[in-house]
Amino acid sequence: MRFRASIQNVGTFAKFTASLASLGPVAWVRFSEDEVRFTVIPDQGTQVWAVLSLDTIFDVDHYHIESAADNAINLEVPLVPLQRALKSALSATSASIRLTKKDSIPVLSLTIVTASLGTTHSGPFGGGPSDEFGFGENGPTSDKERETIVTQDVPVRVLSLDNVDGIHEPRCREPDVHIFLPPLLQLKSISDRFTKLAMASKGGAGGAGGTASSVGPRLEMAANMHGCLKLSIRTDAMNISSVWTGLSNPDLDPTVVEGGEEGVAEHPSTRMRQLGSADGRSDEGWAEVRIDGKDWGKVMSVGRLEGRVIACFCHRHALILYVYLPNDEEGRDESVLTRVNQLNLKLSDGGHSINKATTEAHGKHSCHNDLHARDNRSPMNVAHQETSPENVYLKIRAARERS
Prior knowledge:
This protein has 403 residues and is α+β, with helices and mostly antiparallel strands. It folds into two domains: 2-118 and 144-164, Proliferating Cell Nuclear Antigen; 177-206 and 215-398, no CATH class. Helix content is 21%, strand content 38%. The protein contains nine helices and 22 strands. Strands 10-6-2-3-4-22-18-17-11 form a nine-stranded mixed beta sheet. The chain has a five-stranded antiparallel beta sheet with strand order 5-1-7-8-9, covered by helices on one side. Helix 1 (10-21) runs antiparallel to helix 2 and helix 4 (184-207) packs antiparallel against helix 7. It is globular. The two termini are 32 Å apart. InterPro entries: HUS1, HUS1/Mec3. Keywords: Nucleus. Pfam families: Hus1. Its main location: nucleus. This is Checkpoint protein.
């Protein structure tokens, strides 16, 4: 079993690992000949299923892997140590990673090469003050780069095929709504504000003699097929909602949808497109999920990757976020066609393309506040707060366009 590779995008790798570390302590990492998979399945909270093409992180010309399992290696990797090691490599001139053993313990060994300028004197007796021609009294001087090599070891556990055979990406029903999200940092700022308000409200109720619930604040997210997204928080003391309009809904590609044009016509999102309105005022056509406010704030940390995000809403069942990492190479876009579970989104030119969505994704944003004291506890609101939130799945893709 052998693995070694040269890292060509240290910054992307570091940001990616930092995002995963906020969602779970360890990741199942699968290296293969054509892709790298990162899977985070915490005891509670959002699951992450990430698939990256090799050139997203590594130099494919200096990527070598060998194993008896069809040249695939499965590892359990602690994310915080890996993040720290990559952070120390941000200013490196080169960085490489390999699987090895230290004291019989398997480790991912990160070799970091940095360069610094140092002044050297080539005269036989040392240097002195320079004259007008740049020579010292005893010889010429020059600036020369000095290389410093640092090695960071991250202990890992090698997983056998028996350990990972039972791990499969969850399958959900066809989404009712799919939409490009606004910038995640903007969405995170508002989500965190709503969560803090809900926690403060709940804390105040507990201080007045009430019993504080162990269930965290629940955010409500809803979207329609007319470019509208709504984020809400409801407690006994407040009802706040924030609405975005003018966002983009990707089109389905009939060439890959089962049933072709007929399959697109019968798809739940097509039926939802017949309901609701573009101003977000209609009560019809919304697909809604409830999410844990604290966990959602961690999920929004993927905003540091600066990728485009498609949210797929399965009404009151699950929320699936697909993060498409940007490609640095000129003339190459994100994945042209991506299969989202059984939802096929056409992300090429024409219709609502990724490039068009870039200008439309910000949309228009408004906030509606309904802060008022409620003398009587609403049974509907109490039941809504105490139920479990829907599942949230974060799926990160960085597939390159293939000829």
